[in-house]
Amino acid sequence: MAVGILVDLERCVGCWTCSMACKMGWSLEDEEYRLFVRTLGSGAGIDRPQGVYPDLKMSWQPIYQKSCTFCAPRVADGDKPFCSCSCPTNAISFGDPADENSDIAKEMKRCKDMKYRIFEMPAYEGSKANISYATKA
Ligand code: SF4
Ligand code: SF4
Q1: Which atom of ligand 1 is nearest to the CA of 15?
Q2: Whose CA is closest to 91, among 33, 20, 15, 1?
Q3: pLDDT given for residue 11 in this prediction
Q4: Ligand with minimal distance to 65 CA
Q5: How would residue 47 be classed by pLDDT, with cut points 50, 70 and 90?
Q6: What residues make up the domain containing 46?
Q7: If you measure from the C-alpha of residue 55 to the centroid of ligand 2, how many angstroms do you get, rounded to a whole number?
Q8: Which of 81, 104, 120, 127 has the most C-beta neighbours closer than 10 Å?
Q9: CA of 78 to the centre of ligand 1 (A)
Q10: How many domains does the chain have?
Q11: Which ligand is nearest to the CA of 131?
């Protein structure tokens, strides 16, 4: 079974709960992040929008590091990954995309039905494989 994660970027509000849940759940060191949330704004720093007031725009993208284990021990016990089950907007779905009954397969279908664009990070980002994103843009 090749598991993966789909993030619906239309639902992501940049709260970092997913990242913090991973850190707390796996007792990571202060400087260790298996997942961080990138601000898509002006590029001047976290939570800096692009544009000129009142035409401002900002969105977010969770970025999974190669150190992410897809929460294998939890999944083996029948639980969902910490990041997925903690997201307050249900933006993160997990599972085997080839299993039509999995959360990720159902979400992939919903996003495709909504005509969302589905994409993965380019290799030069060096982020974890099998992470997909869905967005209207
Ligand atoms: S994916 Fe969910 S938990 Fe993570 S930053 Fe976005 S809204 Fe928050
Ligand atoms: S799947 Fe598990 S290990 Fe990977 S980022 Fe989410 S909580 Fe952390």
Answers
A1: 8
A2: 15
A3: 98
A4: 2
A5: confident
A6: 4-135
A7: 35
A8: 81
A9: 22
A10: 1
A11: 2
Beta carbon of 17 within 6 Å of any ligand 1 atom: yes
Say which CATH number the domain at 125 has.
Answer: 3.30.70.20
Cβ atoms of residues 85 and 61 within 8 Å = no
Å from CA of 117 to ligand 2 middle: 24
What residues contact residue 104 under an 8 Å CB cut-off, 6+ apart?
Answer: 3, 4, 5, 6, 93, 94, 95, 96, 97
Ligand nearest to the CA of 133: 1
The amino acid that residue 133 corresponds to is: Y
Q: What is the pLDDT of residues 84-136, one digit of tens each?
A: 999 999 999 999 999 999 999 999 999 999 999 999 999 999 999 999 999 99
Percent of the chain with pLDDT over 90: 95
Q: Exposure of 31 by Cβ count < 10 A (0-12 exposed, 13-18 middle, 19+ buried)?
A: exposed
Question: Relative to the CA of 128, which ligand 2 atom is closest?
Answer: 4
pTM: 0.95
